[in-house]
Predict the structure of aromatase.
Amino acid sequence: MDLISACERAMTPVGLDDMVADLATMSPNATAVGSPGISVATRLLILLICVLLAAWSHTDKKTVPGPSFCLGLGPLLSYVRFIWTGIGTASNYYNNKYGDIVRVWINGEETLVLSRASAVHHVLKNGNYTSRFGSKQGLSCIGMNKRGIIFNNNVELWKKIRTYFSKALTGPGLQQTVEVSVSATQTHLDDLDGLGHVDVLSLLRCTVVNISNRLFLDVPVSEKELLLKILKYFDTWQTVLIKPDVYFKFDWIHQRHKTAAQELQDAIESLVEQKRRDMEQADKLDNINFTAELIFAQNHGELSAENVRQCVLEVVIAAPDTLSISLFFMLLLLKQNPDVELQLLQGIDTVVGERQLQNGDLQKLQVLESFINECLRFHPVVDFTMRRALSDDIIDGYRVPKGTNIILNTGRMHRTEFFLKANEFSLENFEKNAPRRYFQPFGSGPRSCVGKHIAMVMMKSILVTLLSQYSVCPHEGLTLDCLPQTNNLSQQPVEHQQEADHLSMRFLPRQRGSWQTL
Ligand code: HEM
């Protein structure tokens, strides 16, 4: 978008200007019919007062706070900050500097960064924001442009695709999740080579890939190979998401990203083909899972082959990207808060005891629920979401033109509003139920996380299975504060070779019931 026109369309608060305009343009006839008793002098006086008030309101609060345009330097610098430090880090920077509603520019496009609960709530519940923003070329490069669900901006198609996800991630699909998650976690724990240096991130990621495959696909998969491709794909996704078009003119860069994305797409395509063959050869189809439903939809001409592949790809990458890292942060926070660990284990002992976790136990594990919520609040993996205004709107008094990019900085909102001990890790923050508008780890409304229920069930099942058998000990001195992290598309630990060893943890077997380590 043209920078100058972006500046000219700056967002202004709505108020008296409109009233003045209305009064000024009101036809004498209309007034005469509507208010016969008001004289011309009174009308002029009202008009004058309105003009004065409008002028005052203009000087008081003219535009959304943010860096100034300054001949285009403002847009350039804010864009460079987003590219350089990552979307999450830059959003926090601007909210801390200018307040909870800020206007910046990404790729020349006006972008609002919101961390005020009322504004966030307005966007989340409103059907006017069911689209996201991102570079078209970048999204095409990773197969997400008008495909799949996560960044699909063709609203009609997205709605249709979302019904397949909703069906798979709620209802009967959700019922099997406890059993599948417990058994996948147990298998991966039993397969550990040793307990001294466990690569926990890899263990958690392989476990969730296994769970996702069993629930949504159900074909033989080499988890480690698939995981490597998922990690490369994720890296490409956050690299290309807000890059300018010129970036994609350089073939050698473009090709590198295309190849990384293509590798995962090819791998998923062959898994879908395998599923198709299995379905053709089966005498009777008992378990019609997510992929099977999509294949039927393709057979009936409702979805294209590319869309089926992209949907399967996205359901497979959704959990390793979010859930495994969340669990990793949770294990660190648990060791930093031994009193919470004790409460958690006592709760598991009372509700589950020596047997395996069952569906009915989940709602009884209150401390576990509060612990997970507090971790998602205090140190989230996904601490913002990206939306786009589909038509003109007003947010907290500011006029928002159609096409404006929106970043909902929920991570910052969780630390600045409502919670009593907002900057501390404390289960007291969830002693009472937090109202939805103040606690949005999964977003809410029509474009919220469609996997939010299954994610909670998976996290509970994995934590109970792991913690009831092992005490998990990070390296001496490793805390969340000193863990090197990046915050681009999501908050992640840095996993370069030199840090990787530091991230491994020691597993000490526990004596069940007494919660002492053996
Ligand atoms: C701790 C785990 C997770 C967290 C914190 C999380 C968080 C989120 C958030 C914040 C969004 C954006 C919502 C918005 O724009 O309002 C989202 C979207 C989404 N999530 Fe999750 N998620 C998690 C796990 C999962 C899992 C396990 C799945 C599926 C198996 C999943 C599938 C999706 C999908 C498909 C979307 C896009 C929805 C759409 O655009 O319509 N998520 N998630």
